Structures
1.
Amino acid sequence: MVLQVQKSTYEAKTQEIAKQLLAATQENRSFFGALRDQMRWDDKLLAWAMSNPGLRVQLFRFIDTLPALRSKPEIAAHLQEYLGDESVELPSALKGMLNFANPDSMPGQVAATTVSTGVETLAHKYISGENIKQVIKTVERLRKEKMAFTIDLLGEAVITEAEAQSYLERYLDLMQQLVEASKSWTTVPLIDEADGQPLPKVQVSVKLTAFYSQFDPLDATGSEERVSDRIRILLRRAKELGAAVHFDMEQYAYKDVTLSILKKLLIEEEFRSRTDIGMTIQAYLRDSEQDAKDLIAWAKQRGYPITIRLVKGAYWDQETIKAEQKHWQQPVYNDKAATDANFETITQLLLENYQYVYSAIGSHNVRSQAHAIAIAQSLNVPRRCFEMQVLYGMGDKLAKALVDRGYRVRVYSPYGELLPGMAYLIRRLLENTANSSFLRQNMENRPVEELLAPPVPASPSLAARTEAGFSGAADTDYAEEEERKEATLAFQTVRQQLGKTYLPFINGEYVQTQEIIDSVNPSNFSEVVGKIGLMSVEQAEQAMQAAKAAFPGWRKTPVKQRAGILRKAADLMEQRRAELSAWIVLEVGKPVREADGEVSEAIDFCRYYADEIERLDQGYNYDVAGETNRYIYQPRGIAVVISPWNFPLAIATGMTVAALVTGNCTLLKPAETSSVITAKLTEILVEAGIPKGVYQYVPGKGSQVGAYLVNHPDTHVIAFTGSQEVGCRIYAEAAIVKPGQKHMKRVIAEMGGKNAIIVDESADLDQAVVGVVQSAFGYSGQKCSACSRVVVLEPVYDTFVQRFVEATKSLNIGETELPSTQVGPVIDVNAHSRIREYIEKGKAEAKVALEMPAPDNGYFIGPVIFKDVSPNAVIAQEEIFGPVVAVIRVKDFKEALEVANGTNYALTGGLYSRTPSHIQQAQEEFEVGNLYINRTITGAIVARQPFGGFKLSGVGSKAGGPDYLLQFLEPRTVTENIQRQGFAPIEGAD
């Protein structure tokens, strides 16, 4: 009850203060006035974006591309491509300006100059300077207006260790120069002192993740060590100079680790008594109130206050999309009112604890600021304990009104080159032009009551919006500490089971074998993961006979029952997810996060194919009067599945359950190096209820058992994933009809690729470098979808190669069980020597841009990058299946496509580009089964990116797609004449 009274007291005061502030901000406005035609171009662009959603999207995309464009004709061409799009209704002024026939023409050049000048002016509104000199000028102007500042350094994403070191050095330099300049500043009592105490005149804002290029919540401990070392250097120097340091908050995935690192660091004896350091809380996060409570409790224990900057949050779209794509709960509130209400709750919490934490209230919403002042006044909060913050170029009038009322206002002022600053600019523009933005609503003269009403959240919805159709399994979110603990525990459990023996499973029984081989951990080849019993040809024949005997019963088993077994298997995999991931990591040397993604894929195959068979089981009716025509499917017979080691669970599961659910009896022969994982799959299928003889696990030598089953007259379907050489041999052998064989064998073969990513001159190089590094060196390049060629256009070639090399150098190579590892070993000794041979060939035909050293306790090969490679070189034509990349220089986009298409393969391909016509052309002409634009080219998701290629990359339909199960089925048509003596039932007749 007391709280209610308190709230309503605050509310009356909030309204009173807000009305005064609003009146001050609304004086002499002319934003949408009659002066629109005389507005400057930057204002016009903003005004148009607000009134036209289609234009807003395309305009912001164009602005995002602008930094990459090197000439006026390029700018003019992109203007036409983006704004000439059919989705855009153009204002007449823009329409007239874009009406040029040729980007090289004079009107084209004028359009380019006008718009790029407009964008530059717009950028200057939100970016406080391009260099320190300009920044000092800006802050001196702010100080004249009695406003304090905090400076944030804009720049390229930190993706290399060189960039992380440079980030630290630039901040040390920035602080030094600002403090030097501050010596000549006269004291402004409103901002330089409070309650008789001097305040630091200089403050900088930093991003924690920028201090380590491989910052990753999965490797919380490693990230903490690397980041903390650099932060200590920064904080020590700040103390010597008398500057304050504030830590910004970034994406949700980094939040918990960021808070944990800072809490540990700031309780160290050296930093414990510092009160000139701050952290940030984002009110749009659902768990931010709890974070605020935890920080207050921590600050009490620390005994010295720190500042907490409260903001609403700047990555809403990104967080929402990521949660949807990953099937995770939404970390952010779905509606603006809920964020505003939470902001007010946390404001109250912080101000009521002013003895322990200083509050910095960051908002351009008049009500939010008025609410904070109302509480501060009611509680007599000392001036040192709170301040108001706004972003540079936003809320200027609000800032002035607050200063006039005697409050300390700090302006968050980003600085840096305009071009790398575009991402920041676009976030500001989105905020300014969003329908829900207070700034926009205030400009549109909404009624005062509406603008200042207390926020009323809509009913909460926690879940991500569900996709139409199939919804896949959610990967593990390693930003959650509990999930990291579970992964560690799973490794301990699995390690206790290493070295066990796994036998073939024939007709419902495990059978002894004469030959047993070791499956070793490629990260440490002295460690035996399991012992595998390899079956003989005689035992393979027994398995075939058991399958034949089981087939009549299995084909008659109702589809619902068969699908039920798959769904049960999926549930069991979900329960055993962490353990299955650990087996994958240890047996085939796949890093933890990628192993977890593979378990999701296996689960998805089970559930998706269960759904699919129920769809296909309905068949099709093509009835006409007097006749029924049914189109139905039946199983083919016996399927032999030959699965690879590189996706030992996902691909083995996908091919096997597709064969089973369609009613075929199935023999799974895994690659020898990954037979423990397929033994685990066997345990799961048996527990899920697969009848005996229907599924059999037949580990054996490919050259003996594999060949025997491929050539067997009773084999109907062969599903294979592996090398082109073996795939072509199987295809040839399957074509020969053996004595006693009464059918043609069906071969489904996925046989690898020589995948290229094209990087054109308009690409976002931050995104392209990160995407190529992940696509090329994820799982040490041992995915059939991995990038092994990068085709780069001349204008960006040198810059790309330099950053690609630096980013690759920053990767951690090591045992894949370690959470810090990004590049693990290759699979075995044969792969190791084959890849080394290719590296030697590469040295003879191209220049080595990078060859990284690697540990020698496992089958490790450090990433190798070759540059200036000829498109016809061996390393640019043959599949290497290791961490080796050929970078090829081309003069234009036409040549880039010719080079990309110039191999025998057509599996995956990628394009990094912000030129709409290039994107369109690639969609039409890039010869690949899976084309990825502006993202990595690996990690296809079931029912989202069905996977498979053509040319010599394979034969058959795409795995995880709507046609895949058809390959395991025979279609039949059944026609019945239903007339009797000229009489037949006619629908609709009496």
2.
Amino acid sequence: MSNSTKLQFANSVRRYALATASVTALLTSAPMALADDAAAKDPELEEVVVTGSRVVRDGYDAPTPVNVLGADEIKAAAAPNIADFVNTLPSVAGSATAANSAGSLSNGQAGISALNLRALGTGRTLVLFDGQRSVVSAATGQVDTNTFPQALISRVEVVTGGASSAYGSDAVGGVVNFILDKDYTGVKATAEYGETTYGDNENWKFNLTAGAKFAGGRGHVLFSGERVRQDGVHYYSRDWNKSGYFGVRNPDTSAGAPWFIVSKNVGISAYTPGGLITNTALKGTYFGVGGAVNQLNYGAVTGQWMIGGDWKYSSSGMNGTNSLAPDEERDSLFGRVSYELTDHLSVFGQASYAKYSGLSYYINPTQTGIVIQADNAYLPASVKAQMTTLGLKTFTMGTSNADMPASGSNNERETWRYVAGINGDFEAFGLAVDWDGYYQHGKTETLELETPTWNTARLTLATDAVVNPANGQIVCRSTLTNPTNGCVPLNRFGVGVASQAALNYVLGTPWRTQEFKQDVAAVNFRTNSIEGWAGPISLAVGAEYRKESMDGYVPTEYQASGWKYGNYKVTKGDLNVKEAYVEVLIPLLKGLDLNSAGRYTDYSTSGGVKTWKVGLTYSPIDDITFRASRSRDIRAANMSELYDSGTARSNSVNINGASVAFVQNLQGNPAAAPEVADGYGVGIVVQPRFLPGFAASVDYYDIKVDGVISFVTAQQTADYCTINKIASYCNNMIYSGGVLQTINLYYANLNKMIARGLDVEASYRVNLADLYEPLAGDLALRLQATHYIENVTDDGVTAINLAGANTSSTPDWVYRFSASYKLDDWKFDLTARGVSDGVVSNAYTQCLSACPASVSPYFTINDNHVDGALTWDLAVNKSFEINNMDLETYFSIKNLFNSEPVLVANPANLGAENTVGYLQTNRTLYDVMGRTFRFGVRMEF
């Protein structure tokens, strides 16, 4: 890079630091002030280009807001990984984490940490590593951020606005760019340990990083390695999760009564841990420990639920079976070598490897409608006698299968990434030009392994146990006619009664391997030296080629739908993308800049599309900056949406108040067209000269996505068919003998998605001695908040606003306040994280009597309120030096006051099988682990 251009970049960093601040969308004054100070001391920082624009120059403030999370903030948070810290930003909503993805059994997403800006979906947030794309971790296009070298991340830049014209597909909600500290020199290491106040979820983290110059400073080498271990929390429920807080269909169906009832002491009425008879005169008979026969005390029954009665016992086989935290093992290695061939040309090569192993449980598997014959050999004698007296030949039974293990995933994922690049500068036609190019090859290999789950055919055979009249032994009925079928009879009547041999027969561990490949080649050119009438004009042009492919293997016995969970199918496909862009920055008048960009992209799957942006920034005085932007962005279908051969997932839906089991078959659509998003943004940044160190900003965003690539859920399909009487959805529900077997779901371009909101930020940095001389130390205050105004997906039938619904990921307000105080070698950080009060659903009407008629999905409910929450975190750091080694010890407490999460009822999911076993809260918004301690030591020399 030329000296003149370096100076312009250095100035741009300083001007960015001083001129921009935003919530989850701007360059924030607190971290950027640190960057500004560092820039004055470290010339290496002169080459920083802030994410969101390909052109940056002195005096220019981007019209698209950017949030920079600096190294000090990342360290102070002491999060297990950087993604967990980024997820605390108010504009990051609904992200996938290893903890909340336990239910992703058949699609391979369990264990992935994928970021989600504006709650538009992880697929609409582009994640970059040092400005470059990274190979995906699943067919859905998600990039696991834990594959990045955590110890070498110098900062994280979050662009909360459309950036497709700069980076291509997926940047509808914005971009999260993890910036690599390429110039680190020295050796540093971290050792860290954490656990909760309950003594569980123990975790360890160790990393070692080294960097050195060679060849007289012309070369530089980097290495980093990290190991992370975490003990999960399984088969355990915190006390707050034991109150039976659910939203169910009101047992009182009289006119004027609310449709839904939210209440405590709600449990399941369709099964018990060891089996419950659900029809005939024996209804309510259940089998307990050792097969003991008991009678269930039913409460007020409503569908598969009941209020009161023995609710706690009936649900006890499910409560706590959804993992509170997963087991995790993560290992990563990263290496990089760079060399200056000449003063104007440098090359580099880097390689990384990351491995993940994770175990998490979804729920204990349930089964209803089991037909039991009167001659079943394991039936307790008293029940058999009653059947004889009543003349019963069969009964049906429901069970949560206490003798079987919980169903879950034990996934492994390995990612390799190789990059070779070149960058330099030259002069041509009187212009100073900087350029760079790179080639990247990435590969992810996955082993998706189910924990033991039953084979449906084998379970049916094993359940039908009889006495062999020839020898008096208990055998499968099928064995009488097929002696070599290998069937082992299974006792289903009670807790602790199943033999290991029978479980070995009915259970299996379905698995699938997948391989994802990505090849990227890109080249970029930039100049800031075109003379304009109001100042230098900046220009950037570039082109990129990308190819992605996926393949896999599933053993024949684990394909189709023969298993309770993990009915994997092989999905194969590939695509390639060719694109070119141009971006220009033109000073129009003093203080008024125009930023515009255009990109043409050609997808092998859907043809060519154009994206663009136009932005203005105006600073009439140094204290105030106005900005506005308009963009056209796109997202093309990922490989799952294009080629998914049918994800066969077992679940249940609510039909006429009853929970009905089925197999969900989600299929790709090669004809899916790219989504088209129109985004608008306006904002103001205020940094008054009369209050040095203070900055505040307000930004409004409005995003409309047409042709949203998604699918109508299974429950929506059932509702649209049975309630709304839409024939096309009824055609997707496949019955056999009057019994629902499959619900076919298809990716398609739905109508639209709308997201509107407001970002607010204020920050203040001051040396206390400047306020009052006897005081000492540096104080930094920062408030970030996002107001979600609208979050709607219109599927052509309904369009419900999820903003303000605390059952979703977009409550009315999300906010974060941090205060940092540094005095000599001590540093204290206090953080408050909160969400506002909200509702269960904006489609519901709260009433207790004289309620209006309910028409799906606009129901009445007795309590539509959900409380907000405020959670406090505290961190203390102490730095010192021993024998020329810099040491830092740190101690953090997350959820300082051990606040329990707010209980959240979600009656929209009352028919789902997993609702009983899932946490009775929204783990996306509320802290579920409780008070968590972390202690660590950082060493550097």
3.
Amino acid sequence: MSKRPETHTFPEGVITEPLPGEVIYPLLRQQKTWSDIMHFNRNLANILAVGGTLEQIYRRWQYFDIVTTPYGSQLGKNTPGTVTQDRVKAYAEFGWFTGSVAMRLAELYGGARLEHNEEYYTALINCDRELILPLLREDKQLREELIWGMLAVEGNRDVSLTQRDSYKPAQKVNSPGWSCALIEATETGLISRDRLIDALLSSLMSDFPAYRVGWFSRLVTGLKLTAEEIAARQSEFLTLFSSPIGPSVTLGVQHIHRLWTKNPQALDATAFAYAAPAVCAGTKANALKILTMLQALYRAGTLDAAACEDAVVMALSHTHAQVQAAALKHLEEWVQAGAADNASADAVVFAERARELYRDYRSQLDPLVVAQIQGSPLLEDGYSPENSRGSGTEDAALTEAADIEAAAAEALAASRAVIHRYWDTPVRPVTASDVQERARALLHHQVAPCATLDTLNEADQPETHAGCELELELLTAYLLSADGTAQSPNLLEQLVPICLKKLNHWGLEWFDMRAHITVLAAAGKLRERPKASEMTQREDPGTVPNLHYMYSRHAAFFGTGFKDALGALKSRQSYTPLATSELFGGWVHPDTLVRRYAKNLADGAPILRQDFTAALLRVRVPEVLPPYATDEQRQDAEHCRDEALTLLESLEEQYVKNAQEDAPRSAPTQIRVLRSALDGTLATGRINPYLESITVAQREKSWGLQLNGVAHGASTPELNAFRGLATAHHSEEGQYALLYPSRAEPLAFYCASSNWYILDHSAFDRSLYLALAAHPGAWGPACAFVFAAGFSEQRVEIRSLAVEIMHRVLDDQLSLEDATAGFVNFVPLAMLNRWALALTDFAQLDARAAVRFFARLIPHLDTGANSLGKLLGAFSQALATLDPATRAELVDESLRAWLGTLTGSSQKARYARNILNQVQG
């Protein structure tokens, strides 16, 4: 930027002296030069108040624009003191760049020729608020043409009518802006009131986002339309009934309701009835207004039952009890009209139709509504769930419900069998023929198709990143094998450019970083960063300094086991990893562990301690074959066990009883541990108590979660493997999914520690729930805690996924007691209104399981909790779908006593009494 000259040359007409009413304070040294002109903008109203003109303001603006623009700099092709299309673009894009009134003044007094396009109209929104009304008085083209184009544009994130104007109709005093200026302009006759109303309604019916449409709704409300004005625009307001934006629907309902109140004869009843169903699916207040109007029109004979049917049917499925009760009143009136002596044939038909609708929607009605309908004309035909027990209809309904429950149980058992078979399916090791394909897929965070066995259907594979983590282990195992080391470094040399290109750009996840560095290490391109004295001006492209810096900087975040594997890859010594999973569930057979251990000793490869510990965590003790195993598989397992015992005896003879001086010092201890693994007595008893001692708590100053007790007591090798849970990084669920296949708590603790839980901004994304769902181990309260967060999710797809997984694991991997404990721990963070939605979804899958679980959970809730009434309503509705004997069985004495403490006329108290009535008959 060039140095500013001491003097300026001003065009003719520029006002260099302060105008009357203009107040300018001297600038301090640290202030920006823009402060001067911004202060000038705040004094525009004073200038006009003492007799100044718009042309004088423009000439004064030119002076400030020239002296505050650094010498030699331009805004595009715009020189200081002038306005071209480039400055218009700046006014339209930057909300802070106010003063766009100069754009219009330049056209009026400076001879500027600007294109009146969408960008121009957006910039016009950014006018100085104090000058809008004076400019409307002086500028005829603005009144007749420009403001109508401005009202038709959406704006952008920084510049829009909603962003720049905070007008509120209910506020006594509003700050000046476009809203106040337009209202005053209509009152004084500057612009046409009818044209303004039509323009606002046209924008309301456009596809603007909800946030930007709000300004138009507020301005229509502020104009206070008369009944005649509403009547002339009924079609526009009725069109708003089907708007996806709630405030727009409310605006339409309010104005149509006002028209009906002031002048009922002016309402087009047929068009109103046609548009009404869309509103009955919206908010409670709007739906009740529509149903009240329909009921009055039906009683007056203006509309018949056929015209009201669609809206009433929509209201019957509404979530709020008052709307359902109002819809039932319509049905009762139809029945009464059909029972009259002079009833028409259509009235009789719709009376039967009303009873049919009640029977169809009875299961969806709120329990309080059903309880209040006793004695209704809808029940005069003899149908009532209470008085029809034992009838053929009720027996058929019970039989159908039993068939549905049996089908659901069969589907649940099938889904559990599929996931169990997946866990017990052997993995496909990496071979020389597919190493290139599988390594290339892994660099793109994918699993190659050739990695899946032909016997495993694609639909049987759960979505989880653990698959990529397992692939990385299998690839590393092959690269460390004798075949892999024999072909290195040429084996993966063609993948090196891909790795270097990605690693030289930041933003890789930790898994991707480990995968790329593994390939580089196998290709011989990973070496220690050279000293400064050894650095050349231009280094080998395969060992760029950025890569060394990145590895040295992040080496602390890589596990010791990973760094040990890298060291083995760089040394070109073959090694058989002990912990590489054999099954998709992450297990390692004890006999396989013995064979791998013996092979490493025979090859002279030192046993890596972290690898040995990881292998012990993956051994299934006691090892049990699945119930669907064939006789041949059982015979093969017995043969492998016999071979492993024979091999272990030879190891004991060589390294324990007759140990040589050069034998590994740790071999005797490790061989004794292997013996316990084969015997089924492996000492893993310290792990489960340690995991159970870890708790998840809320942080003091935020909604974040923290782990307590992770480092406490973690002194043995197998417990040290879990110490990293407290400092885990995002997107590393694959490591913890395979860490300890016997129990899923490490993965759940990872979810809690590496992700923040903030109300409506949860980082518990889909991948975490899928990773937990694919874990083969037993679940504990920590896992239930994560799914309690899922039940509180605002996102419907995540909440539904959490419900589906919870349905599958409950009473299989997760006990009812542990599930209750985990949800109770989450209660301080819970959103009970969303738990109510989750309960409804759960009941659709399995009503008995949903009621059984929440019957245990509800007594642990505070009776004063927010949205407790909604949760009790959902529970009551799910309970109503069960037979009386099942209700009495599931609602135990503790829940009944807790419900008895809710008294009064509140919604939760009424639901509590309704639940007790259902149980007690």
